Every structure is written in C-alpha cells, then in structure tokens.
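ok trying this again, last paste got cut off
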Amino acid sequence: MIVQLTQNPSIQDLGLNVILGGFGLFILGITFLGDGLKEAAGPKIRDYIEKYTSNIFMAILVGAGITAIMQSSSAATVISISLVRAGLMTLNQAIGISVGANVGTTVTALMIGLEIDEFGYYFVFIGALIYVFSKRSKNKNIGFVIFGFGITFVGLELMSQKLSLLQDYAFFESFMMTMSAHPWLALLGGTVSTAIINSSSAVIAIVQKIYASGGMDVVAAIAFVLGSNIGTTVTALMASMGGSIVTKRAGLFHTLFNITGATIVMLVLQPYSNFVVMLNGYLKGSPTFLIALSHFLFNFTFAILVIPFIPKFIKLLEILIPGEDRMRNREKIEPLDENLITTFPEGALQLAKSTTMHMASLVLESLETTQSYLHNGSNEDYEVVLQLEEMVNAIDTDLTDYLLKIAKQGNQSGHIAESYTKNLEIIKNYERMSDLSTNLVEFYHMVYENREEFSADAMRDLDTMYQLLLDMLNRSFEIFKHEDLSGFESLIRDEEYLDLIEDKYREKHFQRMAEGICDTKVASSIYIDILGILERIGDHGVNVARYVSSAIKLHDEDL
C-alpha cells in the first residue's frame, strides 16, 4: 500500500509579495479613479452639495452620489462640514450627507461583485493610450479615470490568485473557524483592519476574494463587512476631535450611526445572512456579489430607517457634546437677474452691489478664519478658507460677466459707465483679498506640516496686525455699503500706520533671528512674506473705499 503524504504549503508558496503588490495596485487604482472623477467634476462638487440638499432625502442622495464619484466618504463629509461652517448648510443636511456617503461606499464592492477582473488589463491599456497620446487635458483626465479603473481590477486579480491558497493553511482554517464560531471577533477584526488601512473598500474587497475562494463562511464574511463599516468612521472621528462643536457632532454621529446599525444586524446575523444568500441566489449572483449585496443592503436599509430618528440623534449629540455651534446663518445669494439689464439698468447695478456685499462678507470671514487657523491649526478652518475661496471666485466670475453685459447695452449714461468701472474694480480687489487669505493659510499649513511654530513675540505682532487690518476692512466695507466717505481719511491714516508697523515687525524679526529666538527653518523664512500679505490686504481694503468716489487706483502693483 502506498501512502501519499501531504505537506502544508509554506509561506513562500503563498506569495506574500504578490498579495501586497496587488493590494498596492488596488489602493492606487481606487485613488486614481477617485482623483480623476473628482477632477472631472471639479469645483462643481461643492455647488452640487450646496444646491441639491434642500431636505434630508436629497442630502442622502447627494451624499451617495458624491461619495461614489470621489470614492471617499470622508471627502464628502469634509465638504459638507465646511458648508455648515459657512452658513450654507444645516447640521441636519450634513448628517444626511454622512448617511448617504455610507451608501456611496458600496459602489466599489458592487463593481467587484460583477467579476470583471479579467477585463482590467484592457482598461489599463485603453486608459494608458488615451492619457499618453491625448493633447487635451479633458481627454487626458478620461484616460486617467479608465486607467485607475483598470488598475483596481488588475490588483484584485493578482490578490485573488494568491488569497485562494489561504484555505490550504492550517492556521488560517483554524482562524476562520474561530471567526465563524464567534462572529463578534470577526466584527472586531473588520473594525481594526479598516481603521488601520483607512479604506473600507479595500478590506471588503479582500473579504470578497477570500469568501469566493471558500476560505471564509458567509456569517464571518458579513460580520467582517459590518466591522469595516465601523472602522471607516474612526478617521473621521479622530479628524473631528480638533474641530468645532458642529464638526465633533457630525463626526460622532457617523460613528454612533454605524455602530448602532452594525449591532442591530449582529443580533440577527444568522437570519440576515440566510436572507442575503437567498436573495443572491434569486439574482443569480456570484459569491463576490453576495458580499457586495450584504454591504449594500445594510447601508441602504439603515439610511432609510435612520431618517425619522435624526432629530433624536441630534438631541443626543447635543447632550454628549454640549456647547454652542459655530454656525453662521447666511442667506443664499440672490440670483443675478439679466432681465434687469435691459429693463432697469440702475436696478441691475444695485443687484450687483448687493451681491458684491455678500462677496465682501465671505472675504472678511476668510481672513478671520486664517487668524483662527494660525492659533489652533484646525483642519476644519483650513478647509473653510479653501471653500470660501471657491465661493468668492464663483461670485467674481458671475459678477464680472453681469457687469460686462450692463456695459455693452447701448445708450448708457455716463453714470452707468462710471458705476460699471467702480463696481468691477471693487470686485477685483475683494477677489484679490480672498486669494491672499488663501496664501496665508497655505503658509500656516506649511508651518504645521513641518511641526514648527512662531515665537510668542512673532504671534503677538501678527495678532496686532490682524486686529488693525480687520478693523480697517470692516470700516472700508461700511464706506462701500453706505457710500459715506466721512471715515475715509482715518482709514488712510491707518493704512499708513499698517505700513509702518510692517516695517517695524520686519526689523524685529531679523533681530530675533540674529539672537537665535526665531531659528525654525520654515516659519522663520516665510514670516516676512506673511507680514507683506497682511499689508497688501490692507491696501486692497483702502482701494475699495477709494473706488467708492473714484476709479483711480493707487496700489495697482498688488493686483
């Protein structure tokens, strides 16, 4: 009798290098796909979120759609929180975006469930050809998206070839038996692995491939998926810790919501698993599609069920995180009515002025937020300034086109022509102030990225300049709003004083550097630039007041 001995495969047989390489390609593909689609949608993403989230149902749909496009639930959440801070969205709507983002994250798993891995190489080839040989940036971006889509599936195929061998290892079989017998451990495993990798899509993709190869039973696989839903909230929760009250509440809601949903399903895990298996059989889906289906059903069902309980959740959040919301109640911008241009040009100019005043308030908030970011380094403040810059740029474009149409109308009076020039120059000064505010937070961001800080003396000097500058801009705004030049001379004197203290603070900084007080690499080198930016913003503020009475501009070198 011949006895055939079997030997467990070695770790070398598993091909860990191929698994890790395939995983790297998958993550890279997801990133390329999200970046490419985000670039295609571009600045419109914020507009979509702002315009189409009038109620909780629309907010959920928008959250799902935006997350599917950007392949990142946290990115959609960050944008929605920024809009809350800007006063253009309520906390209820931001919660709706968060709930919808959960549904949007299921798109990747559903695509994997279609089992089109073998076509990944074709997508890579086509995407690379389009990207390399296209001249137009739009076509290049399309190629980039297709390439990212293909790389995702190439990475998956490489992983699946080796992950299927796991079931031959005794330690893995024992591990899976433990997970199946104790699904709560599988839930914990999914939570921890997703928190570490920072991608629920990646973890679920691995679970799909292991389950499809027979290395995991359905109960453990679904428990792992539920755990990944909890793990994906860890990053957002940690990021919200340093933010405002509303940010912390939004981050905590996402975590509480996912934990509550996962706990409820875990209590009925076996019946839920049986239902998913039955439904997948009815749909004639593959094993990988079954996992995607369980992920989708869980998120979609709880997205619907949570709607009536959102007010209760908000009250709970207010108890858990007490404090006053840092929210600005700002009205929507009134649309620029082009019919007024021909029927009532004076009315059109007044409407343009009203919109410019709204633009000015955004600029003032942006500058105030840069000072807040200087002191606390909150990522939320940083994002708010960038969001405000996008909003100001959009208003600038619309107002410029609107004023140009007014100017092109025939038989214009001298007053209309002068008002056109004055308003256009004021708009450009405010737009430039917004650009400079963005430059400030970018400089501050560089300091925080390098883990540096300004000296206490340097911070006091910056705060002094900020205090004077914000006072000047508010008075300049009042001159523009009321067309009252009685405070113009004092504004000029303060501008001269701002120039004076800028020179003084430059000298103080050089002295601190000589004495070794300011010896940081980045902060010391950009401090002079920051002083210059603050002084230039003051010049633009004076220009706004100056154009109220005249179209003559003295500080044209800053434009």
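PB: full thing came through this time. Residues 149 and 367 are 40 Å apart (CA to CA).
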